[in-house]
Amino acid sequence: MQREKMEYDVVIVGAGPAGLSTAIRLRQLAIENDLELTVCVLEKGSEVGAHILSGAVFEPRALNELIPDWKDKQAPLKTAVSEDEVYFLTSPDKAYKVPNLFVPKPMHNKDNYIVSLGNVCRWLAERAEELEVDIFPGFPAADVIIDEANVVRGVITNDMGIAADGKQKDNFEPGMELIGKYTIFAEGCRGHLGKRLTEHFKLDDNSDPQHYGLGIKELWEIPEAQHKPGLVIHGAGWPLNESGSTGGFFLYHLENNQVSVGLITDLNYSNPYVSPYLEFQRFKHHPQIKQYLKGGRRISYGARAITKGGYFSLPKMVMPGAIMVGCDAGTLNFAKIKGSHTAMKSGMLAAETVVEALSNGDEGGQTLTNYVERFNASWLHEELQSSRNFGPAIHKWGPYIGGAYNYIEQNWFAGKLPFDLHDNSKDHQQLKNKQQANKIDYPLADNSISFDLLSSVYLSSTNHEEDQRCHLKLSNADTPVTINLKDYDAPEQRYCPAGVYEIVTSEKGEEQMQINAQNCLHCKTCDIKDPTQNITWISPEGGGGPNYPNM
Amino acid sequence: MKILVPIKRVVDYNVRVRPTTDHTAVEISNAKMSMNPFDEIAVEEAIRLKEAGIASEVVVASFGVKQCQETIRTALAMGADRGIHVETDVELQPLSVAKLLKAIVDKENPGLVILGKQAIDDDANQTGQMLASLLNWGQGTFACGIKVESETVVVTREIDGGTQTLSLKLPAVITTDLRLNEPRYAKLPDIMKAKKKPLESFNPEDLSVDITPRLKLLEVTEPPKREGGVIVDDVAALLDKLRNEAKVI
Ligand SMILES: Cc1cc2nc3c(=O)[nH]c(=O)nc-3n(C[C@H](O)[C@H](O)[C@H](O)COP(=O)(O)OP(=O)(O)OC[C@H]3O[C@@H](n4cnc5c(N)ncnc54)[C@H](O)[C@@H]3O)c2cc1C
Ligand code: SF4
After folding, report:
1. Are residues A194 and B205 in contact, defined by beta-carbon separation less than 8 angstroms?
2. Measured between CB atoms, does B18 come within 8 Å of chain A?
3. Is the pLDDT of residue B189 over 90?
4. Atom of ligand 1 at shortest distance to CA of A14?
5. Which of A6, A160, A547 is facing B185, going by the closest CB pair?
6. Could you give the domains of chain B?
7. Which superfamily does A5-68+118-207+315-386 belong to?
8. pTM of the predicted protein model
């Protein structure tokens, strides 16, 4: 198909903290150096922020460098962290408060802010537009353009108006080619183009397998008497430890009597009966958590995977004509459970590299190895390097001993112990056969603290145009039944936080997989956890997906 | 012939809204805002009339906060020619909007005003009708078909159980129903072009229109929660419940 083309100096995919920081830094440097430089950002959400879901305790280090006068420019960093508590939930009603002294240093949150990362992105987008960046929300990058010379030349946006049966509808609009001297991929965790590039350019050949967690979060409005603005609570233990799974929870008190509460389930869990959603629902009943939520009302719900492999899982981030930044590459610092400041910094470093190249007469399409040098010389590298063992320690030894190791390494040796811990297992290969696993009896929702799945999905405001091609592609249509159902009792029914996958019985009495793609939250878990990697997430029509307001 | 299309910036139809804690309004902070879907249909129809050579210019107008300009840009990206924004932070009620529109009509002299039949936020379904009577023009509401002839416009209306076809003398006011057309997607190059299309901005005072709200909103509440169902053991239990609990038989 002949497609229309638009050219930019730099094309950025994804308007999260990484993509927007890249855009802003590019234009700042262009103006400083009197360089003509056009920049555009594609975003699949209906608007900037619509698909952003995070905690979030925000470390302003990168923002201080990017926009030093962010306070005057009214950045939505309104609630400073005032108190920091860490708990180990030892049973459904008991908790052990970890004395401050024993909390690993990276988990302290002095000088940080509790924010809605979505709103921070909305604000960053305004700054970018002031600098003449063209931002196109509602336009997913559907494909990468790689030329005969194996150079990334840009991306193609989604075709719009194709019916479920593949026919063009009346309002069909073909996608466009966006051509850039350089393309920056900033799609966040498990970007579907980032995944393709990693395979194509073998970017992860020399790194450990990437690891992921699924974060499920709700925003609550709670009675004023229970609200302590600035209080940050983290912890681990129950209920995930009952099934031998790991992960962690957070509860942050924001402004306006709101709290953000969430549970991150590590996606290397092995019991196929684990439902991260129901784990989260029962977790909220722990008295340590419920004391804040009771009498409140839930105002939003959503889910998103996080990339948490850390230092040893970082792929090669440069390839001909492109750089991969932020969580698309995997820059999250798992010891701090923070990825937004590192995503921003990686984007800023990419911008500096690109401007340096272009101002030296580079015509684009090169492999910018300078990026790696900048990366290695920055605080970002130092930060990721010093917490390199954190995730592997917990994976290897579980939260107790792994946690103790982390305490000693981080507090006594500031992350400088001369060991490296590697974790070479792959998340999707960890599921046990259903015969070897115990079913889990989850309590019913009480409709005041815990809720059923569909009422939750409703609160995410997700939607997709109904008559379009399914954006969850199965490589083999039978696998969901012949392998997933037979061996693992169809775990996608439980790990999908939006109820997209459902085993139904056909009129002929055969069991089959039904995909309710309209409900998808774009969390990417199915693409990560499917035991045979049979599910590939591709971008649906623009504007589809959740519409998170303050997440 | 010039066509005027008023468009409203409303909370997106996908966003699940809720009352504010004090029940005085609907909570929309940081919620996704979009063009009212019925207005999108109106813009689409106007552009089609222009593409068919019937209309010479499509002018869109939006009233309200500064960000209404984004909504206007969306219409310009679809293919409208220019925009008019009347900026105010005052809550605008249908009569005020109709009066502002009349002032714009007096300036612009369009041959046709096409509006959405109602806005999905307050569902008032009044502005088109009020405008027609302020202008003393004919009105064709709930249109699912529009055919412009030399001096008249034939409007097919959705009514209970069927359609009704009217012939109106031009100039006229039309309000759109859902089935009139399916709006197009804006293309990237058109979004870029839209940034450069003319957009005029006024204050309500410039147009000498009094927009003081006349209706007072008393309260916004959530619909009552549906109670969970129960499964009864047998017909006798069902009858008992219907008779003694629900008291319907
Ligand atoms: C539950 C949870 C809690 C967290 N808590 C914290 C915390 O407290 N502190 C902290 O610092 N970090 C936290 N993080 C991590 C943090 O949110 C991420 O590290 C950060 O958002 C990564 O930024 P990014 O720009 O790389 O990607 P993202 O924020 O994921 O942004 C990517 C953007 O790209 C868009 N996109 C993706 N693919 C395409 C495509 N093909 N075309 C167009 N657009 C596309 C997406 O819609 C999205 O808007 C948390 C994460 C989760 C899930
Ligand atoms: S279908 Fe996949 S990406 Fe979508 S919500 Fe479910 S697990 Fe997440």
Report:
1. no
2. yes
3. yes
4. 34
5. A160
6. 2-221 (3.40.50.620)
7. FAD/NAD(P)-binding domain (3.50.50.60)
8. 0.94
